[in-house]
Amino acid sequence: MTGEDFVPASLRRLWRMSESSRLGRPAALDVDVVVAAAVEIADRDGLGGVTLPKVAKSLGFTGMSLYRHVGSKDELLTLMADSALGAPPEIDTDDWRAGLRGWAFAHRAVYQRRPWLTRVPISGPPSGPNQIAWMDAALAAMSRTSLEWGPKVGVLSLISGYVAQSVRQFSELAEGRAQGQGQVDAERDYGRALARLVDPERFPEAARLFSSTLFEAPPPDTSDETIADADFSLGLELILDGVAVSIERS
């Protein structure tokens, strides 16, 4: 029994371990071709637009012909997610906080370019080569801290989850707004409406919030992207503050 016998077929495909034609001729299809076509469809139509028959049709093949290269729709999504993520940027390993901040913003930029990535079901821990590369980059940023492996993995999971959720939430809020309405106007309308509805005796703190200037504060020319950056930075710095406390305690 070889080492490869312990690696499931799905992981062998994810890591592009040898794949050859049964007839000894170059295959007309391979994993890379199938995944590239699926990613192109997702970039154009969103994740919901990706089906095995549609991918096969875009390549000029039948749906059944894909199963030699992709075992299932779930496996295709896993392959797509790793491929679309790409390689991580160079991360500052001298300053753990700057390194993790840069990692988070770079990860967010990928999701902003391809928001469908935040909707890929999570079926297990990171396992593809690009996912492991991003994991390695984040671990490298924390390599000079006193954190043990468990807390490091916890920090990685927390930040990556925050990045994905923030991008997905911003996208969903944008989809839910009236056509042509920006975030500033939506927040102002929300604050004014709730200020009229919230009873101070029943919800005293919420009433104080809606009677404040918070939702009126952003100037009219503030872009949605500026607001999203500020909101993301606030949450990320709070997380990093917690990491700093954990490092001090360790």
Structure summarized in a few sentences:
The protein has ten helices and no strands.
Strand proportion: under 5%
- Rg of Cα set: 23 Å
Coarse structural class:
mainly alpha
Q: How far is it from the N-terminal to the C-terminal residue, by CA?
A: 43 Å
User: Mean pLDDT across all residues, rounded?
Assistant: 90
The proportion of residues forming helix, as a percent range, comes to 55-70%
Which residues form runs of ≥5 with pLDDT under 50?
A: 21-25
The outline comes out as globular
Order of helices and strands: HHHHHHHHHH
Largest sheet: none
Extended strand count: 0
Number of H/I helices: 10
List the helices and strands and how they pair.
Layout: H1 9-14, H2 31-45, H3 52-59, H4 73-85, H5 96-113, H6 129-141, H7 149-176, H8 183-197, H9 204-211, H10 224-249
Protein architecture, described:
- The chain is mainly α.
- The chain has ten helices and no strands.
- It has helices at residues 9-14, 31-45, 52-59, 73-85, 96-113, 129-141, 149-176, 183-197, 204-211, 224-249.
- Helix 2 (31-45) crosses helix 4 (73-85), helix 5 runs antiparallel to helix 6 and helix 8 crosses helix 9 (204-211).
- Mean pLDDT is 90; it is low at 21-25.
Key words describing this protein structure:
250 residues, 60% helix, mainly alpha
